[in-house]
Amino acid sequence: MSYRPGATHATLRARAALLDRVRAFFAARGVLEVETPTLSRAGAPDPALSQIEARVRSLGPGPCYLHTSPEYAMKRLLAAGSGDIYQLCRVYRDDELGRWHQPEFTLLEWYRVGFDDARLMDEVDELLQQLLGHRLARPSRRLTYAEAFERAVGASPHAGADTVRAALGKRGVEVPPGLEETAVLDLAFGVLVANAFEPGALTFVHDFPATHAALAKLKPGPPPVAARFEVFAGGIELGNGFAELTDPVEQRRRFEADNERRRRTGQPVVPLDEDFLAALATLPECAGVALGVDRIVALAEGLPDVASAMAFAHSASRNEDRA
User: Fold this and answer.
1) Eight-state DSSP code of residue 162
2) pLDDT at residue 318 in the model
3) Res 178: pLDDT
């Protein structure tokens, strides 16, 4: 019976109904649904993302990449005057397989012209209350990254890697030697910070360290922080949002720094998306966010993992059994 779907028929119906509610949410606000390519000749330089390569003979020699997010193409639409847009699409990330991870999954991503990160958090909260309200026992909470970090770790994220390492050691968290500061912060956040969030509630963490800005604007300090937020249900991350950077020179600098980090750590260097960088010069002031749909479905239906929310999830063990 290995051909049968992993999700029940009831779950698949509930998933379809949830997607209907998502589309109704944006239709009521005049946000346009769009589609953009899955394949790109350019890569995502973020060292935290491992892309899946594809060879497409009709597109010429060299690799293409399955997108980890539709962000670059959607911002090109925004720069061309699309106005508010959203997309529901499959995305692909290598090295991700576990209870809450799959190498391909469904992403909901949207952009609001004229919004900042705070206003977009309001809209994300409103949508998630509609989709998950029956599972939430407490009101949503908002914390700065520094507030959440200091409560869980006992040190400021701005104090330097050595101070954070010492604080982690006091809490029994082993830090592998040679980790850069950003990786030390990520370890602390994943092991201690997120696990301290209240179950049965949404937690928004905002004002990330400037080292974690990615494609976000910076807010002036001291210390400067990124106009970035993440939203969690209990300790499960549901989404990541920014007030979007519109400076192509600064974005290129960040991409090149990411590629240099890739080079140092033995990851493949990826070609930059020149069309995206060109579009930033005319990108309107906006904010955008991406939410993991499979995780939302799993939480809405009380399922134990994302595989149970998908018709056909990937399983490393099954592939090994067939080898």
Assistant:
1) H
2) 53
3) 86
Q: Please classify residue 21 by burial: count the beta carbons closer than 10 Å to its beta carbon, then call 0-12 exposed, 13-18 middle and 19+ buried.
A: exposed
- What one-letter code names the amino acid at 2? S
| Cβ-contact 230, 254 below 8 angstroms | no
Write the pLDDT tens digit of every residue in 20-32.
999 999 999 999 9
- Distance, in Å, from the CA atom of 107 to the CA atom of 241, rounded to the nearest integer, reads 13
**CB-based contacts of 8: which residues, under 8 Å, 6+ apart?**
none
C-alpha dihedral, 204 to 207 to 209 to 215, nearest 10°: 90
- Six-digit token string for 197: 């969030």
Among residues 255, 290, 283, 229, the alpha carbon closest in space to that of 91 is found at: 290
Angle between helices 293-300 and 9-27 (to 10 degrees): 120
Length of the chain: 323
DSSP, residue by residue, 143-158: EEHHHHHHHHHSS-TT
User: What pLDDT shows up at residue 317?
Assistant: 64
Question: What does the block give as tokens for 180?
Answer: 């850069």
17: exposed, middle or buried (C-beta count within 10 Å: 0-12, 13-18, 19+)?
exposed
Q: Taking each helix axis from N to C terminus, what angle separates 117-132 and 293-300, rounded to the nearest 10 degrees?
A: 40
Q: How far is CA 42 from CA 45, 68, 76, 258, 261, in A?
A: 9, 11, 14, 14, 17
**Spans in the chain with pLDDT lower than 50:** 319-323
Tell me whether the omega of the peptide bond preceding residue 222 falls within 30 degrees of 0, making it cis.
Answer: yes
Q: Which residues pair with 208 in a beta bridge?
A: 226
pLDDT tens digits, 236-278: 999 999 999 999 999 999 999 999 999 998 999 999 999 999 9
Kindly report the number of other CB atoms within 10 A of residue 28's CB atom: 8
State CA 224 to chain mean position distance. Answer: 22
